[in-house]
Amino acid sequence: MKITEDVRKYAAEQGIAEEEALKKGMEEKSKEFVEKGAEVYAKA
To answer: What is the CB-side half-sphere exposure of residue 2 using CA atoms within 13 A?
Structure first.
């Protein structure tokens, strides 16, 4: 699947394990979500 491929590529680029890449990616997206106002349905 495309997502799995992207995670593996990201992990390889960062030099970390896939599980750590998933954790790091979710932390980054969580921060981005809060910075944009924590709205589930963003206004266009």
So the answer is: 0
